[in-house]
Amino acid sequence: MAAHCPRDPDALLTAEDVGALLGLSPRTLKDRAAAGVFPHRRFGKHYRFSREDVAEIVQLTKNAVRPYRGGMRAA
Predict the structure, then answer these.
(1) Which is it for strands 46-49 and 41-43: parallel, antiparallel or unpaired?
(2) For the chain, how far is it from start to end, CA to CA, in angstroms?
(3) Per-residue pLDDT tens digits for 24-65
């Protein structure tokens, strides 16, 4: 996890960095940011996230219902 965090506390993280930290795909992060669900900064087509943005994303996803991705369900 520390390998993905820049040493500068004010540095902006990429969707790939945040995805690796939170276990989310970069595409999901970008899609939700574009929809206005996740806080972010945008520079042209590039999405960047501050540490404050990441903390808010953690809070937003904390209680989110995860889709079922298993095999057959027991009855």
Answers:
(1) antiparallel
(2) 38
(3) 999 999 999 999 999 999 999 999 999 999 999 999 988 776
